């Protein structure tokens, strides 16, 4: 529903009951004022001489006119015709309304007097009147009005007279002006409201066009925010929401681009070892069919490729969880020496197949840390695996854990392999600093594993550093805070 029509219907729905209520209240007040004036007139007439005639002969008093009808609008029926003049229209004029007098208990000496309700008589205070249901005369516009005199008792304590309907009611008017005047007032009010609402409707339409235009063009929101009213506040809210939405969409696009590159690089990383593995297994199969002995070097190469694929898949799973913001860490108190022991045991066989000597040195006292066991094993394992994989045969990898200053630990993984050139090392640091997950095979193919290690270390409050090894390879350093040792007895 359009705003103009809604305003119109709402205005009519609210104004009509108010107008009817005011009209009803006005009519009630006017009728009450008319009744009070009539009551006062009857009391004054009785006090000015009618009381004496009434108390002298109540029955005869009841047959006369109703207590000297007041002039003007208060007259009961038309004025009396001059003596000897024919009735208007050739018809006999209606008789004047009767009046009846009662004692204070509602009894009357006139046998023709209507019976009164005792409850109505009892509740009527001196000097007040009450309109009763029914009629008293042939005059169609008269109602019975019961008036209690100021005196307490006597045959004329109560007077029942014909009460004429106010002239305004006879014309069909409710209160004040006629009905069509009320309609004109209501129409003027509605027209004024619609004129006042026109600027509001125009601003809302302009805001709608601007929002739709910026949404279709995917441009930064440029909305009309002048003013201090609710529409200006709504415009500013739309503009802020548009900026936040576009920033969110931009982040999603960047993530989608990174994910696409991630999938492309991952497909390349997985395809190469699978091709090598297929070639090695095919060679082994051919030698087996020919009855020749299996070449151990080829089996070792196949195992190395299998280990690489397994490591790559583990890192891909971790990368997916980290990118989704759901690493799912379960922190607990650990001894970092035990974590390194598990990592060393898992990689000894890989190192033997590659012909690399894997050694480690641990401090005699515990190194307590707070972390997730699986995540820490993967973080340290990535560094150890890279050092083995990118080393030469008959090379060495050393894992050294020691206590550092200010309650920190220092974990070094050092190899004596070919290492990285200065440019390659700087590029690797830049990729890690920028969050680039692109990976390259060969001597510089450390990208994915180190990226996962860096993210897991960051989630634990650790730091990752890269430096050339003094033995010609690469030195990876992990540092972090030690956890408070458990209390005695726990």
Strand order of the largest sheet: 6-8-9-11-10
Rounded radius of gyration (Å): 54 Å
Strand content: 5-15%
Q: What integer is the average pLDDT?
A: 75
The secondary structure category is: alpha+beta
Low-pLDDT runs: 65-95, 170-175, 436-446
Helical segment tally?
A: 11
- Tell me the number of strands: 11
Biggest sheet details = 5 strands, mixed
Describe this structure in words.
The structure is a single chain. 52% of the residues lie in helices and 13% in strands. It is an alpha+beta fold. Among the domains are: 3-76 and 95-179; 331-481, 2-Layer Sandwich (Heat Shock Protein 90), CATH 3.30.565.10. The strands form three sheets. The protein has a five-stranded mixed sheet with strand order 6-8-9-11-10. A four-stranded antiparallel sheet has the order 1-4-3-2. A two-stranded antiparallel ribbon has the order 5-7. Strand 10 and strand 11 form a beta hairpin. The protein is rod-shaped. The relative contact order is 0.06.
List keywords for this structure.
five-stranded mixed β-sheet, 11 strands, 13% strand, alpha+beta, 490 residues, single chain, Heat Shock Protein 90, four-stranded antiparallel β-sheet
Write the layout of secondary structure elements.
Elements: H1 3-56, H2 58-62, E1 100-102, H3 118-122, E2 129-131, E3 142-148, E4 158-164, H4 167-170, H5 179-217, H6 230-289, H7 296-323, E5 332-335, H8 336-354, E6 357-361, E7 368-371, H9 373-389, E8 396-403, E9 408-415, H10 422-434, H11 447-459, E10 463-468, E11 474-481
Parallel strand pairs: 6-8
Antiparallel strand pairs: 1-4, 2-3, 3-4, 5-7, 8-9, 9-11, 10-11
Helix pairs in contact: 1-5, 6-7, 7-9, 7-11, 8-9, 9-11
């Amino acid at each position: 529903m359009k705003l103009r029509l809604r305003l119109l219907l709402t205005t009519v729905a609210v104004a009509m009951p108010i107008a009817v209520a005011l009209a009803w209240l006005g009519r009630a007040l006017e009728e009450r004022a008319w009744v009070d004036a009539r009551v006062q007139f009857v009391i004054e007439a009785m006090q000015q001489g009618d009381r004496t005639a009434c108390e002298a002969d109540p029955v005869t008093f009841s047959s006369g006119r109703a207590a000297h009808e007041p002039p003007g609008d208060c007259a009961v029926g038309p004025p009396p015709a001059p003596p000897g003049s024919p009735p208007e229209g050739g018809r006999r004029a209606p008789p004047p309304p009767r009046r009846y007098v009662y004692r204070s208990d509602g009894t009357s000496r006139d046998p023709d007097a209507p019976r009164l309700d005792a409850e109505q008589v009892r509740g009527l205070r001196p000097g007040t009147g009450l309109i009763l249901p029914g009629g008293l005369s042939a005059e169609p516009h008269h109602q019975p009005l019961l008036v209690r005199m100021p005196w307490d008792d006597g045959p004329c304590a109560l007077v029942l007279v014909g009460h004429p309907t106010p002239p305004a009611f006879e014309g069909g008017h409710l209160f004040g002006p006629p009905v069509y005047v009320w309609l004109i007032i209501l129409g003027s009010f509605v027209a004024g409201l619609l004129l006042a609402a026109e600027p509001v409707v125009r601003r809302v339409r302009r805001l709608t066009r601007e929002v739709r235009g910026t949404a279709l063009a995917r441009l930064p929101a440029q909305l009309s925010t002048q003013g201090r009213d609710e529409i200006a506040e709504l415009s500013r809210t739309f503009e802020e929401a548009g900026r936040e939405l576009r920033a969110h969409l931009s982040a999603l696009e960047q993530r989608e681009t990174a994910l696409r590159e991630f999938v492309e690089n991952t497909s390349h990383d997985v395809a190469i070892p699978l091709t090598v593995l297929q070639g090695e297994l095919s060679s082994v199969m051919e030698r087996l069919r020919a009855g020749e002995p299996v070449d151990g070097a080829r089996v070792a190469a196949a195992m190395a490729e299998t280990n690489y694929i397994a490591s790559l898949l583990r890192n891909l799973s971790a990368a997916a969880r980290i990118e989704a913001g759901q690493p799912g860490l379960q922190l607990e108190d650990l001894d970092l020496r035990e974590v390194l022991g598990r990592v060393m045991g898992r990689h000894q066989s890989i190192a033997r197949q590659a012909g690399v000597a894997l050694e480690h040195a641990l401090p005699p006292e515990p190194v307590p840390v707070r972390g997730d066991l699986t995540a820490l094993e993967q973080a340290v394992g990535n560094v150890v695996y890279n050092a083995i994989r990118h080393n030469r045969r008959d090379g060495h990898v050393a894992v050294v854990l020691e206590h550092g200053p200010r309650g920190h630990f220092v974990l070094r993984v050092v190899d004596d392999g070919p290492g990285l050139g200065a440019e390659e090392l700087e590029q690797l640091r830049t990729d890690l600093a920028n969050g680039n997950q692109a990976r390259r095979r060969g001597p510089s193919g450390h990208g994915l594993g180190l990226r996962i290690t860096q993210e897991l270390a960051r989630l634990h409050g650790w730091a990752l550093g890269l430096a050339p090894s003094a033995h010609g390879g690469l030195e990876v350093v992990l540092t972090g805070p030690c956890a408070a040792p458990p209390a005695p007895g726990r």
